[in-house]
Structures are given as C-alpha cells and as structure tokens.
Amino acid sequence: xxxxxxxxxxxxxxxxxxxxxxxxxxxxxxxxxLVADGGPAFSGPLDRMxxxxxxxxxxxxxxxxxxxxxxxxxxxxxxxxxxxEDPALANHLxxxxxxxxxxxxxxxxxxxLGEGEATRRYxxxxxxxxxxxxxxxxVKVSSLRSQLSAYDFDGSVARIADRLHDLYVxxxxxxxxVNLDMEEYRxxxxxxxxxxxxxxxxxxxxxxIAIQAYLPDSHAVAGSLCAWARERRAxxxxxxxxRLVKGANLAMERVEAELRGWPQAPYETKAExxxxxxxxxxxxxxxQWGDAVRVGVASHxxxxxxxxxxxxxxxxxxxxxxxxxxxPEARVARARAGSVVLYAPVVRHDDFQAAIxxxxxxxxxxxxxxxxxxxxxxxxxxxxxxxxxxxxxxxAVAERTTVSTTPRRRPRPLVASDPDARFTNEPDTDFTVAAxxxxxxxxxxxxxxxxxxxxxxxxxxxxxxxxxxxxxxASTWGxxxxxxxxxxxxxxxxxxxxxxxxxxxxxxxxxxKTVLEGDPEVxxxxxxARYYAASTRTIEALVAEGLTFRPLGTVxxxxxxxxxxxxxxGGVLAALAAGNTVILKPAPExxxxxxxxxxxxxxxxxxxxxxxxxxAPEDDAGRRLITHPDVGGVILTGSYDxxxxxxxxxxxxxxxxxxxxxxxxxITAAADLDLAVKDLAQSAxxxxxxxxxxxxxxxxxxxxxDDPAFRRQLADAVESLRVGDAADxxxxxxxxxxxxxxxxxxxxxxxxPGESWLVAPRxxxxxxxxxxxxxxxxxxxxxxxxxxxxxxxxxxxxxDLDEAIAWQNGTPFGLTGxxxxxxxxxxxxxxxxxxxxxxxxxxxxxxxxxQRQPFGGRKRSVxxxxxxAGGPNYVLTLGHWSGGDEPAFARWWRDEFAVERDVTxxxxxxxxxxYQPRTERIALVGGTAEDRTVAxxxxxxxxxxVVDEVVPGVDRIRLLEPTSDxxxxxxxxxxxxxxxxxxxxHGRVELxxxxxxxxxxxxxxxxxxxxxx
Length: 1013
Ligand SMILES: Cc1cc2nc3c(=O)[nH]c(=O)nc-3n(C[C@H](O)[C@H](O)[C@H](O)COP(=O)(O)OP(=O)(O)OC[C@H]3O[C@@H](n4cnc5c(N)ncnc54)[C@H](O)[C@@H]3O)c2cc1C
Fold this sequence. Notes:
Bound molecules: flavin-adenine dinucleotide
Number of strands: 34
Shape: globular
Structural class: alpha/beta
Helix content: 40-55%
Number of helices: 36
Distance between the termini: 18 Å
Strand order of the largest sheet: 18-19-20-17-16-22-23-32-27
Strand content: 15-25%
C-alpha cells in the first residue's frame, strides 16, 4: 500500500470521510462513492471483493457496513495507534514492556477549539499519569489551552504554563516523565518558553522537549536550551531530555507558507535536514553540558541511529521510535542500544477520527520518496536504494558543519515595489517573529486606549464642500501618464507598508480593531495600491485598440468604519488609478484612520489637489458632497439603505456601492466538523461580526444539527473566545464600535418561535458583548432575513443539502457564502447553485484577498456597475468608455468570459473567478436602433434575455440615452436599478454589463496533503 498512491489515498479517504461521518446512511453512501471511484486499487482480490460487496450491502445495511469499515480500519491501524480502552491498552503496554521496550504514551483527541476540549484533554492526560503501567507521556502545549496566539506570545505562555505546572506536579508525584512534543512552527518558541518557565519553577524536575531538525531555528534554540539547562543543573536542578526529531509537519508548513506568502519555515531540502540533524546531535551531546542534557534520538533512519550510537554518549543518549512503524528495526536497535522508547499514540474508540491527522502524517512519511522508511523495503546492502540512502547519509555527515542555521522566517526588509513587476500579494505580518511582535506591540501600547485621532479643525460646511469640489475639479491628475500614476500608486503601497505598525495602533484605539484583525487590512490596502496600479494596463491596452476612456471626474469615496483603512484605500486608489480626482469622506467614527489613508497617499506623491480629505458631517454638507453636480461618481461601502438614500437624493447619481450581506455557511454531514466549527466561529465573530462578509447563519444538515457533540463543540469554541479591549493582545473578539441599536440590539435579545440560545450573549460593558449563538432559526424568519452586523450567529436545521442551499440563497442579499463538506459531489452541486458573489469551500468566508478573491456581491449586496473590488474589472468601471468598431462578442466570450480562471497558481487553494449571466429581468431603454442591436447581441452572447420596455417584473434597466429625473425617480421608487452606460462596440467592455462575477475559493489540501497532486 505504501508504494501505491491510489491505495494511500483510498485509506486516507476512508478514514477521513467515512469514519468521520456520524450519520451512518451518509457514511455508507460516501463509502459507495469511494469504492465506485476506483476503490482499493492497491489491495488484493479479497479486499477488492469485500469492498465491492460492502458497497452493495451498504445500501441495505448502512450501519452494519460502516461499522465493519471502521472496525477494519481500526484493526489495520491498531499496531500504530493504540486503543485507549482496557484491557487492550494494558495488555499491549505489558507485552511491550515484557519485550524490553519503554513506552511513551500520547493521548490523541479532538481539535482544541475551546477551553472545554482543552480541559477534557488535560483530564485524559491526567488519567494516563494515574495509570500504574505508564511512566512516560508526551503532550503538545497547544492541546493544553485554546485561543493561543502568536501575537499574544506572553499571554499564551502564561496560560499554558499554569496548566503545565499542575501537570508536572502530578506527574512528579506519580513518577511519570513528561515530554513536550513539537508540531507546528508557530509553537516552537512558545513551547520552549513554557518549558523553561515551568522548569524554573519546579527546579528539581526532570522533563523533556522535542526539537525539530528541519527548522534552522532549532540550532539557536538548542544552544540556549542547553546553556540554560547546565546553569539550572548547577543550581542543583534536574536534567532535561531533548528528543531530536527531523519534523513531521512538513506538508502543513508548506501549505501555510504558500497561503500566507511567507518563506517555508523548514529547510527546503531533505539533504539540509539530514545535515542539520547531525549538527544538532553534535550540539546536544557536547560534553560542556555535563549531565544536564540527555538526548533522545528519535528516528527510524538506521544510518542516523547507527551514527548516534557510534558517538558513544553512554547513558546520555537513548533511542526512540514510533510504535508500529518499524518493528524489526526497533528490535535490532534495542538489542544494540540496550533500550528503546516507543512512542505510542492512544485514542478512545469514539474519538477515532482524532487519529486521522496522525495517520496522515505517518502515511506521508512512509511514502515520501526520499525518506528512509520508503526505501526500507528494498534496502539490502549494495542495492540502489541502499546506495542512495548511504550517500545521503555521508553527504549529511560532511555537510553538518556548513549547513545554514539562519532562520528562514525573520523580519522582512521593506523593499520598494516595482511598478513593472507582476502583482503579488503583500504578506501579513509574521507574528512568530519576535521583532515583529515587539514593533507592533510597542506602537499599540504607546498610546492610551481612549486616545483617538480625530481630525482637528472646524466643522466642515457646505462652503467647504464647494471649495473642495472646485479644487478637485481643477486638478490636472487626469493628464498624468499611466506610467507615472502606476509609479505613484506603487509608492503608496510602500509608504503604507512602512507605517503598518502605526496604522495598527490607530485602528486598535480608534476602530476597536484587534491587531490580528487589523493586520490583514493593512496588507489589503497595500495590495489595492499595487493591484490597481497594474489594472491600468488593461485600460491602456483597450485604448490602444481604439477605445476611448474618460475618467468620471471627481469621485467621492464614502467608506464605513468597520474597515477604516483598507476600504477607503481601495476606493481612493482605484479612482486615482483610473485618472479621477478624489474627495475622501471618512466614516465619522474612524476619521483618524481615514486621515492616515490620505496622508500615506500624499507622502507617496499623490498631489493634494488630486486627493482631498473632507470629513464632512452627515448633514447638509455631507449631502451636498454626495449630490454635487460636479461630482462624477460616488464609491460607497455601507448598508443597502444608505445606497437607496443617496439614490433618493440624486436619482442620476453614479453610484458604485458595496452593500449589505446576510451570509451563511452550509455544513453537511460529510464535513470535517473540527474545521467547520473553527471556520464558523472565526467567520461569525471576527471583529465582533462587524463585517459585511461575516457569517451570520450556519445552515446545518439535520444529522449534524441533532448531534450533541456538534453543539458542544460549537458552544465551546464560541464561549472560549476572549472578549475585551481591542488593544489588549489577549483579545480575540473586540468591542462594538458603538452601542448596539436597531437590528443588532434586537438580535441580542429577541427569540422567535422555535429559537433558543445555545450561547446567550451577555452585555459586558456599554460596547462589549459576549458572542451569541441561537438555535432553531427558521426559514423566512426575521433573523434569517435581516442583516444584524454584530456577534450573533443563527443556526438553522436543514433536511438536506438542497434545502440548505435554498435557504442560503433565500435572503435578499448575495454577498458571501460557504460550504463545509468533504464530498466532491456535494461541493459541485453547491457551486452550481449558490447565488453569492464570493463563495468559499472548506474554509472561512471572510478575509477576501485582493486578486485571489475579488470581493463583491449580487442582489441587494451591490448597487451600480457591480465589478468586484480587488478584481480585474474594478478600475475599468471608474470611467466612461466609448467607441470601438469590432465587438467580437463571441470571441471575447469564449476567450475571456466563459473561462474559469485561477491566476494565483496556488496549490493548496483554488481561487477561481468566473462570470455568470445576469439573472435580473433587464429592459433596454432608449438608444439608436443600432445601439440596441449591439446591446442585444452582447446580451444574447452572455446568455441574458432582455425585454424592450419596462414591463412589470423588470428589475434592471440598461438606459442607452439620458432621461428625465422624473422617470429616474419613478424607477427608483419601483426598486429598479439603472445602468446608464452607453453601448461600447468591444466585447471586453460591453459584455461586462451582462454578467455577474463570482469568486470561488476552495481549500485544496487535506491536512497538508495536496488534493490535486
Ligand atoms: C519517537 C519519535 C517521536 C517523534 N516526535 C515528533 C515530534 O514531537 N514532532 C515532530 O515533528 N516529529 C516527531 N517525530 C517524527 C519525526 O519528526 C520524523 O518525521 C520521522 O521520524 C521520520 O524521520 P526519520 O529520521 O525517521 O526518517 P528520514 O527518512 O531520514 O527522514 C524523514 C524526514 O526528513 C524530512 N524531509 C523529508 N523530505 C524533505 C524535504 N523534501 N524537505 C525537507 N525535509 C524533508 C522530514 O522531516 C521527514 O519527516 C517523532 C519520531 C519518532 C520516531
């Protein structure tokens, strides 16, 4: 099986998908699908027959067949993962001990999403400590507490340390040795800090820690750990043991690096890792540490094991191997070394899915071509596999003195961006890097919580508005060349990057944004600068083809308070890129942050008459600004009602509005519930739910909804969110920006028929609320239909996926939506039917990234030209197009609009932008016969039917000639959207009028293993 990728995939899918599904019928169906998809190609004829027969029988006896599958998988894996129940466990431990092995027990469990689960795991470890047949356990610090954060390093250390302290005390009393495992890179320094802190408190305790050789960082860590241990020993303290491993989380580290745009934390090659392993061994066995440091050589690579034994370190060295992975080698090693510790994960019967991640890692390890275990089957002295492994080993020994020990993740130098370079996303801050944490923390801590940055100066009046519009109108920005505009915009991105820490501090204090919520916002603003600069090339190319592009003139940007930096930056920079001048009116609540956007633009060279900052109040002055006849367009991000208000003030207003959302995540019976609950909590309660993209509904398939374990896990995750001041690094969910009112105040207190609180929200202060989750939300109810914009999540119980999709689509909005399911057929059905602008599969539904997930919705989530922000068409919509003589609609449709494109090239996440025909009923009004024919042809190519007059049922008008305000008023009153853009005889521009854009972002890895490989 190890040699057969199809076999490995099948076993993993069986474990991951069939075992995970608690609804037996669904599990049986999934089993049938997997068998039909090729099944156990690796296995012998007997297994193949069993699988095929099982697939047939599963139709009639789903419970029996799925039980058999689970039992078979447990039997197949029980040599690697031990059952936690006695007598099986006791018997196994006894027989291993009789063979002369020491056993190191590690209790596996559910993902730690909340403190409840962390406590449950802690109790399981305590139970292991209490067993008379256990004298060695391993734990991961990240399983002892939830809500750990790389940014809140000190707080996380303190919270884990207090629990580990108790565990150590108990272990010491029972005579059990405790070792800290190492898993993700982000836990490296955290684990070391906790270890040292608690051992400094319990001076005479002996304890262990794992160090991963695949991390160059481990060299400095090992050196300082040993020096500290020697000093502790000299004070009469205990000894430490360092378990030296190569590192088992490579696949996930690669995925994280790719998605975050960070360098991969582990070395790039196995050769470096092998050399690093030996270098670390030299460090750890250095005689200068005396007896303070013992070393566990944990490896199945017999070359490395032999090398370690040859170093002749006496009882300072111990061999360690994994239970069930290399039994013959373990016996030989024990015979040579005298003893071997076997690391044995144990899992309770009803927690078996918790073993999946461990199994996946082991399977990966056994099948990765360069690995020793992969070669072992054909390893005879002199065989090609032997020679290859031998040569690897020799090279590693030689290179151990020269292998680099410089961490790959470190503070990034700020480099000026190149306007001619291909666009790449600005990575978020890597808070595993201490210098980054310190820089931001000192900026945030350097201000008082109540210190805001309101713009000083007298109140803006109508006269100020007149002056500003006149200044902007006289600016010559529109004449600046595209190349020069690109250079300036790229410089804006650079300036923003330079001021990141200061911006985060301003947002934390003024906008109630935690650093971890604010940081991606700064990255997004920087991306907007560079992406919109690059977007101008499309305009240039179209102009070169003979089209005319005229900027709108002066554009007023009206952003909200919830993304007080990136949203104004996006509007301002897109408008500037298209050659417009801009008046920025920041949200009253976050004028200081809005002012930073303007300052950063000016600092980068945007002329002050091309961008004006006008914090106009929402009175006559504000209204005059929005409706001024010399204003060519308004970019609004806000509620649908505000968009309607603006329209009611001026029916011919050119409005580009991103409006409200009522977003849902569908969770089916085939979901990975650990992941689904984590993503749901994050999507619902990030920035206290004050995002238009936030998940406000979870539509859950009945068997999951009814499962007490699901509710327990969701309640645990939500109740554990740390609520507090945004400037406090420990805070996960910050306060509201203003006291709850309107629908949010109602959502906090109202329960409609059938509804009940799973987690009741509580007021903790004027602006501070704990999060709430209500069960039993019914289709068509108030909460199903109303945007509440705060930390309340409603859960709906759906019969099946079709019903779930109908409810997800059954709101007036169409902004974001998600699904969690590991079933490809379900995902395909969902993608074909979901009616949202941003669709997300097996991931959270917030945090859209420029270019990867261009952002914007449909229905009442958008008003105006509807191009997505951060997408290829946004800047194109900020001007007037005309001309063209060769529409070539069919060609453009085939080559551009009918293509589902992923320009990101990521392997772990697929990000597709696609176009779908508009679904509104659209009428063509006015225009010459020729124009109407061209428009109708474009619509037909796009698959849109148009009508020739405004009949009842029309909800959008393509207006091909100016008309009276009265008529515009009447259409507005009737709720009809008007697109006044003239016909352009060019497929790239004209076809855009007839389509919706949809961005689909889909996770394409399972536990690090890439699904498309
Ligand atoms: C007793 C025991 C305890 C363990 N505890 C931990 C632990 O706490 N944390 C942990 O992370 N792991 C742990 N492991 C697993 C360990 O890290 C290795 O994954 C595993 O032992 C395989 O390494 P090897 O030396 O046996 O074999 P080898 O085949 O020599 O090495 C395989 C390893 O090389 C590295 N590698 C392979 N290909 C590449 C590549 N292309 N680029 C970079 N690196 C590459 C990976 O680390 C891979 O696991 C433990 C292993 C044992 C035996």
